[in-house]
Write a structure and sequence with these properties.
This protein is an alpha/beta fold. It has helices spanning 12-21, 36-44, 55-59, 74-82, 100-109, 153-163, 175-204, 209-213, 217-221, 229-238, 240-262, 266-281, 307-317, 345-357; strands at 3-8, 27-32, 50-52, 64-67, 91-94, 115-116, 118-122, 142-146, 169-172, 295-300, 324-327, 338-342, 361-363. The longest helix is centred in the middle third of the chain and has 30 residues, at 175-204. GO terms for molecular function: NAD+ binding; prephenate dehydrogenase (NAD+) activity; prephenate dehydrogenase (NADP+) activity.
């Protein structure tokens, strides 16, 4: 018996899910987009078995429906699905980064024998679109599922069984807990990064040395400030209450530093850095997470002609895919002289081993 899987929105996440399921025994993957040029691209790239611009055609008789649209469109898409004749026992899930509001929406729709289970694959890429889709995206990443208290356990087990093809680690949370945790580890850091960059931008208006000297560590710790503004508007407004509470906590944290500096409390400052360092050191270094990991090496090399080309050639000869090379000029917080970037951990691991064996001084 054929299992039909509908992917509504075949971009990076939806396309990667489709590739994980496609060509599995008995599975048939259908991609949906209202754009004919998009559906044509899905088929040409071999991401899905078939594609359609008809939502009805995509979901009719589907056993699983993955709603892979932006957070701001999720509730509208669920409402559209509610008006279609979905298969009895069908499982509907999403991939959005906020969960409580979509869970409330799904409950309000009162589906008959259709099971909604929220989902959030905590993986991403510096690239976007179906062109970046890969079966490796979710491997060893956390994939959070957020069934509410009334969820059907048999349906939950079926979804978990299907998701084993992603090779992700499934984590079960309730929707509200998810939004609290993800708010702290993703939503708040994005706000802080944007605020920090804009603060320095305002200083730079009267002194361009700020921009010049920010090329090292500052650029690294604020890279998420370059995230898509519209997507993040929707995420933050969707998780508004949680983010507001977190910002109040952040305000209290900064005020503690203000107080310590005013009182010249050196021991208090040391304690703050020590506690932060100890907690951070317990975090897994290379586990895929909600904020895309950086696979980077810093290489201390002599300044002579051809050295960058030599390193790139060495990596190429060993079929190691190097995505970017940067000469670090402002190095106060960054070791090494060259920063080498890789898209996959395997390339990062092999590059580190190779360059170390060639006598290069490597920092990570």
């Amino acid at each position: 018996m054929r299992t039909k899987i509908a992917i509504l929105g075949v971009g990076l996440i939806g396309g990667s899910l489709a590739l994980c399921f496609k060509n599995r025994p008995g599975m048939h993957v259908v991609g949906y987009s209202p754009s004919p040029s998009s559906t044509e691209k899905y088929v040409q790239r071999g991401v899905v078995d078939e594609a359609t611009t008809s939502l009805h055609e995509a979901v009719v008789d589907a056993d699983y429906i993955f709603v892979c649209c932006p957070v701001g469109m999720l509730e509208s898409m669920l409402s559209d699905l509610r008006n279609l004749p979905l298969k009895s026992g069908c499982i509907v899930t999403d991939v959005g980064s906020t969960k409580a509001s979509v869970a409330r929406c799904a409950r309000s729709l009162s589906w008959d024998d259709v099971h909604f289970i929220g989902g959030h694959p905590m993986a991403g890429s510096e690239r976007s679109g179906v062109e970046a889709a890969t079966t490796l995206l979710f491997e060893n990443a956390y994939y959070v599922l957020t069934p509410d208290d009334s969820a059907d356990e048999e349906a939950y087990s079926r979804l978990v069984s299907l998701l084993r093809y992603t090779k992700a680690h499934i984590i079960r949370m309730n929707p509200e807990e998810h939004d609290e945790v993800v708010g702290a580890i993703s939503h708040l850091p994005h706000v802080v990064a944007v605020a920090l960059v804009n603060q320095v931008r305002s200083y730079n208006e009267s002194n361009e040395l700020y921009e010049l000297l920010a090329a090292g560590g500052f650029r690294d710790i604020t890279r998420i400030a370059s995230s898509d503004p519209v997507i993040w508007r929707d995420i933050l407004t969707n998780n508004r209450d949680v983010v507001l509470r977190l910002l109040q906590d952040w305000k209290a944290s900064t005020e503690r530093f203000i107080d310590m500096l005013q009182r010249q409390d050196g021991e208090g400052i040391i304690q703050q850095f020590t506690e932060a360092g100890e907690f951070r050191s317990r975090m897994p270094e290379r586990r895929k997470g909600i904020i895309q990991s950086l696979y980077e090496l810093y290489v201390n090399v002599p300044d002579h002609p051809g050295i960058i080309g030599s390193i790139a050639t060495e990596l190429g000869n060993h079929h190691i895919n190097l995505s970017n090379v940067q000469i670090i000029e402002s190095r106060e917080d960054v070791p090494g002289v060259l920063r080498l970037s890789f898209r996959q951990q395997d390339d990062w691991d092999r590059a580190r081993e190779l360059l170390s064996s060639k006598g290069y001084e490597i920092f990570i």
